[in-house]
Records
---
Amino acid sequence: MESNGATNTITIKGILSLLMQSIEEEDKSPKRVISLGMGDPSAYSCFRTTPVAQQAVSDALLSHDFHGYAPTVGLPQARRAIAEYLSRDLPYKLSQDDVFITSGCTQAIDVALAMLARPGANILLPRPGFPIYELCAKFRQLEVRYVDLLPDSGWEIDLDAVEALSDQNTVALVVINPGNPCGNVYGYQHLKKVAEMAKKLGILVIADEVYGHLAFGNTPFVPMGVFGSVVPVLTLGSLSKRWIVPGWRLGWFVTTDPLGSFKDPKIIERFKKYFDILGGPATFIQAAVPTILEQTDELFFKKTLNTLKNSSVICYERIKEIPCIDCAHRPEGSMAMMVKLNLELLEDISDDIDFCFKLAREESVIILPGTAVGLKNWLRITFAADQSSLEEAFNRIKCFYLRHSDQTHNILEF
Ligand SMILES: *Cc1c(COP(=O)(O)O)cnc(C)c1O
């Protein structure tokens, strides 16, 4: 392990608030702050949820029927609706008993890791990845082993590394698809190979599909659950990203496992007891889930995808104009991309963290250093922002580059 306690893990929110602080300390900063750091698109007016969802929550709240406790595993009608929603893309039907409702996908991650942790166990996490997994694993004393994603192969999972890193104490491999932070979308063939490798090694797959269906490139989204009869899959998701309502805290933990490996009464009992501790998200939000999943207009999804696609293209094109950053792979999904920093072209920048702090102080642009997601001297850029903010941010990054580049220095001295 690379650090020795849960408290040593840098969280995305932690580092972003430090970046914000450093802008505020610079009192003469006249520029509007642009954040391409956080994955919460609801901050931008071009990313609004659908009125269908708002109406559904409002109706549920005003009905007076949903002020009480729900079963801790979730309201039956919400579980059923999520089972049906996910079954649309699977070769088999999920039942409501496969679905457990969580407080966002974050809590689904916690459930998965809590249920798998046992003394001596280890888990395979993608690198770069989503820091909550590492944080959660450390609280559970679950050893973390990192599997590199390969930037030159569309950020595919290094399956040789999966095989080399796993042993009899490995419990699961985490697959985030569409990917955060890389913006990758895995094709059917790659996912099939992942499933076959997991089967060979006797480990589960935890499929983080919080960005499910947010694929705007040439590769269509395929849920990992399609391979549920090859290997047991735990599918994690939420309304947060596809419906742009991260604050509603409505997620799911689903056993996409047609062969029923999780159907042992002891396992089900353990799930239920753990959910008794968690208590579940607000009942009226759960009550709105059937309407949200069944009645959201296709046009809303199309519009979101179109906006994300255009934003990702702006980033991809503007990055090409700035020599010190390079986009390894054109994003095809999610809301973020990884960009490689070439420090040799910069005169007085020591690493990705230094780059991000100086950029924040000088240009009021916030970008997440790659170190926060496991890749030093890379940057994670969130493109879920409005187009004028993106254009302005890249204008400023370009100025920043010109000011700090080796070349400019020579020219100025000349
Ligand atoms: C945003 C995100 C989550 C957390 O989702 P919430 O529903 O907001 O809790 C989990 N995994 C990944 C990869 C994410 O990007």
---
Amino acid sequence: MKEDTKIVRAGRHPAQHGGAVNTPVYHVSTVLVDTLEELEGLRQRKPPVMAYGRRGTPTSHAFEEAVAELEGGAGCVSFPSGLAAISGALLTYAETGAHFLISDSAYGPTRRLCDTLLKRLGVTTDYYDPLIGGDIANLIKDNTKIVFTESPGSLTFEVQDIPAIAAAAHERGAKVLMDNTWASPIYFKPFDHGVDLSIQAATKYIVGHSDAMLGTVTANEECLEALQETTYSMGFAAGPDDLYLGTRGIRTIGVRLRQHMESGLNVARWLQSRPEVVRVIHPGLPNDPGHALWQRDFTGASGLFAFVIKSCPRAALEAMVNHFKYFGMGASWGGYESLCMPTSPEKMRTVTTWEPGGQCMRIHVGLEDVDDLIEDLSSAFDRLNAAM
Ligand SMILES: *Cc1c(COP(=O)(O)O)cnc(C)c1O
């Protein structure tokens, strides 16, 4: 089955739901049984059978089955947010005396979790250069449980050599976790590249419409049971309406991403031609330092990237971003709408320095007409120049 057909079919079982194309929304806590024997049997039930709302319903099973199939893992567990998925994955390997290696380019809240809660639980974290590749072997200790990757990295978009990192980690018995949100399950197939657990902030491209929070961890055969066990122990359960929106989002993710990629690359090339722009950071551009690895391992690019403008006074930056017509400013991304905002990734680094050479901006190119978006950015640069 080709990818676009998989996107349409994954996790769907119309015959089990009266022929309905979409798995209905099951609002469930209690699951009733009639006999003591059935009640005792309930505790033994494993998905896809429903035993209790928190342990999964046809709505969550449909979503998890679809994500697992698209990412290429053995199974998936859903979470009420992307960050909850990250904590579920990390806590699966957390124990007193454990050592974690986390990419210095990782999403800020991932770092905070390691530096606060996990530290308190007795896990030590070392950050590593995202471009380390196979040299990660030099940082792996006997107690290193996981190597956490995020490729391309949050805000800075370094592409990591996942197969080289995975080979080194597996040699020493460490698991490889990846935050695969940027590429979505469509443009990077983590399990083909040695990843053991793949995380999606499904809030982003999977939901795709900026209206629900959701996360997933997909695992290979070897890691799935430990992940499920940890998740059940912690009581994470995503809400049925959000799960439904996640599954519905999946059905259009292929066409949406193709448009995000095309429009994103158009805007990126246009930005490259502007005198205000020092650098465009988009792995899909041939001159990007991550381009070769991206081309080797990824099958596409999403609509999220960065660009750096020449340093400017705050008033000029305000003039630029305060009056966008179409671009919005706000956290998150992956919806149909375009976003553009200043960021300061250099402030998060602890073991590498990242020097943008100006003011870094993160941009999400949505599904609006690309000419309108370019016109909006062009006016923004006019305002910036007038205020310099
Ligand atoms: C947004 C994001 C998350 C967290 O997802 P939420 O659903 O907002 O909790 C995790 N990783 C990356 C790379 C993200 O961009």
